Amino acid sequence: MPTVYLNGAFMPEADARISPLDRGFIFGDGVYEVIPVYNGHLFRIAEHLQRLDQSLQGVRITQPHSHAQWSKIMHELVDLNGGGNQSLYLQVTRGVARRDHAFPANIEPTVFAMCSPLEPLADDIRRHGVAAVTLDDNRWENCHLKTIALLPNILLRQQALDAGGVEAILVRDGEVTEGAASNLFMVRDGCLITPPKGPCLLPGITRDLIMELAQANGLSAREATITPGELAAADEIWLSSSTKEIVPVTRLDEAAVGSGQPGPAWKRMTGLFQTYKSNYSEPGSI
Ligand code: PDD
After folding, report:
1. Probe ligand 1: pick from 202, 212, 245, max atoms within 8 Å of CB?
2. What is the DSSP letter of 63?
3. Could you say which of 3.30.470.10, 3.30.460.10, 3.40.50.11270, 3.10.310.40 is the CATH number of the domain covering 3-117?
4. What is the rounded CA–CA span in Å between residue 6 and residue 112?
5. Residue 145, CB half-sphere, CA atoms under 13 Å: how many?
6. What is the per-residue pLDDT for 1?
7. For a surface tag, which of 16, 43, 122, 177 has the fewest beta carbons within 10 Å of its beta carbon?
């Protein structure tokens, strides 16, 4: 049985207990992170903890731990779950209080973390890519915060699945933002393009690494707004996330993307990403 972390203690998942009055349960009042673990190393841990700080600040929950404390908790949790490759989920909610929309006084945040298996991208996806569906982005205007209130994302993802895709690609005010649980890239005439950061999309850690790798390896890449028409005419489309790395989209709204197969730019970037991963070691201090 997996071991989880809850409010200062490690325990079997079945023994973890949270009050039904937790504001995470009642209101979806909390934030989270998902950190990939490769070979026991927490990948880009400093960047994930920085984004956690920003999410907590954005919803006015006090950061319960220093980065060093987080690192200790997470490493212990990874070890207790057997090391190797995992996906570490952590969540901080505002805490437990009688139901009232206003922030309660003197409340302790609830801190929870768990590990799940991290599966490599399926062979079939590597060979053939996935289908995606464009949908109206009807989420709120603080999508840069990684909050646990994901009902719009869940409904959009399910709508995409029901339409035969694996991900929803979201469009707000005539511009493509991101996926329901991923960031978006397109390749056009050899140039990699991703929408600029802002309140309409999550500043993805994988997204930032892809842009860094492009720059470090002399690939042409820039941030620019993307219209649905430009996306439909792209040579390649990719989705990025901590759990799936880089996924080639080969069908968009039932039409082929470019050649209809994962493209050369995706293959190149995936190679660079794998090399970066194998050379990665965690920073000494975070
Ligand atoms: N989701 N955009 C959204 C809305 C996301 O939920 C995610 C990741 C990303 C990619 O961010 P990153 O590269 O930092 O994982 C972009 C995680 C994996 C999830 O909710 O499970």
Report:
1. 202
2. -
3. 3.30.470.10
4. 5
5. 22
6. 87
7. 122
The answer to whether 146 is a known catalytic residue is yes
Q: What was the pLDDT predicted at 285?
A: 81
| Residue owning the nearest CA to atom 19 of ligand 1 | 181
Q: What is the mean pLDDT of the segment spanning 244-266?
A: 98
In contact, 28 and 148? CB cutoff 8 Å:
yes
Summarised one tens digit per residue, pLDDT across range 93-128 is 999 999 999 999 999 999 999 999 999 999 999 999
DSSP 140-162: -S-TTS-BS--HHHHHHHHHHHH
Question: Which class for 11: exposed (0-12), middle (13-18), buried (19 or more C-beta within 10 A)?
Answer: middle
pTM above 0.85, yes or no: yes
